[in-house]
Amino acid sequence: MSFQWPDRVFIVAELSANHGGSLQVCLDTVRAAAEAGADAIKLQTYSPDTITLDCDTPPFRIDGGTLWDGRTLHSLYAEAMTPWEWHRPIRDEAEKTGLAFFSSPFDVTAVDFLENLAPAMYKIASFEIADIPLIEYAAAKGRPMVMSTGIADEAAIEEAVAACRNAGNDDITLLKCTSAYPAEPRDANLATLPDMAARFGCRIGLSDHTMDEAVAVTAVALGARLVEKHFILDRAIGGPDASFSLTPEEFGGMVSAVRTAEDALGRVRYGPEGQAAKNARFGRSLFIAQDMAAGDELTPDTLRSVRPGDGLHPRHYRALLGRKVTRAAAKGTPMDWSLLE
């Protein structure tokens, strides 16, 4: 069965490198993610040799103030990769718990491998958004395409979106992403989200590397339909992504906050409903403010706009002043046209 986008925000738990070298940790993570309220579990599908070269020369050494400075790309990815033989049992566990399963392929061999597992969609990572042949190859499989835009300018995003559409795939979700690990909320620039939706004509979402649930809530308020966060059973597991991953309790709090934001957003509606509709009777209306006898004149002293809302609408106030009641009316009588007949 092909994937169907839910009516609510789709919340993704990114397993990534948070496995500590243990398949059992992966399976426990899937169950914990489901219990925390995730809709999907996401992996990354690569080996060190499909994502980089085994070189210890300056271009391949990490620097620039990251968590991984001093390491080579190859050594980092050798530690962080999820073994390909683990993917099927992880997918099977996801299906048991009701989670969608998908991954980020980092080359065409990963796409071919994942096709055998029938992933719900494909995710293109921020640093792969320039790999147009990879995007075209994945998009041609006909599954929804999710693309992070962390290092992409407008032209790069346009080229990536065009690659999907040229491959016959228009089911595209663009994720606002800050490619820092961890990221600071002040760098999220979430105001970009509505512009991204309008400019590229795509579903929008958030790939979030901050540790603050307010960022996800704000993104949802701005139209995000997918929220992705790194998930770890316990940061004590360690690993390359541990410091910017949410624990089950933290992730569950974020899910709860997102769902509350969805409920609060609701739909376009004017006027009260629910309890507010019941309380509307306490709004303003016109009442007799003093005991009146037949023939007495309605004046600012005898006719007032007060709570509750049982009398005539206050819009009639000026038209009623100077008119005379035709029968006695006690203080507190709702003003009604029958008093003038």
What does this structure look like?
The chain is an alpha/beta fold and about 350 residues long. It has helices spanning about 25-35, 50, 75-80, 85-95, 110-115, 130-140, 155-165, 190-200, 215-220, 250-265, 275-280, 315-320; strands at about 10-15, 40-45, 100-105, 120-125, 145-150, 170-175, 205-210, 225-230, 285-290, 305. The strands form 2 sheets. Strands 3-2-1-8-7-6-5-4 form an 8-stranded parallel β-sheet. Helix 8 links the parallel strand 6 and strand 7 (about 205-210). It is elongated and about 100 Å long. It starts with 9 loop residues before the first strand and ends in a 21-residue tail after the last helix. The mean pLDDT is about 95.
Summarize the model shown:
The chain has 341 residues and is an alpha/beta fold. Helix content is 32%, strand content 14%.
List the helices and strands and how they pair.
Blueprint: E1 10-14, H1 23-35, E2 40-45, H2 48-51, H3 73-80, H4 87-97, E3 100-105, H5 108-115, E4 122-124, H6 132-139, E5 145-148, H7 154-166, E6 172-177, H8 192-200, E7 203-208, H9 213-221, E8 226-230, H10 248-265, H11 275-279, E9 285-288, E10 303-306, H12 317-320
Parallel strand pairs: 1-2, 1-8, 2-3, 4-5, 5-6, 6-7, 7-8
Antiparallel strand pairs: 9-10
Helix pairs in contact: 1-4, 6-7, 9-10
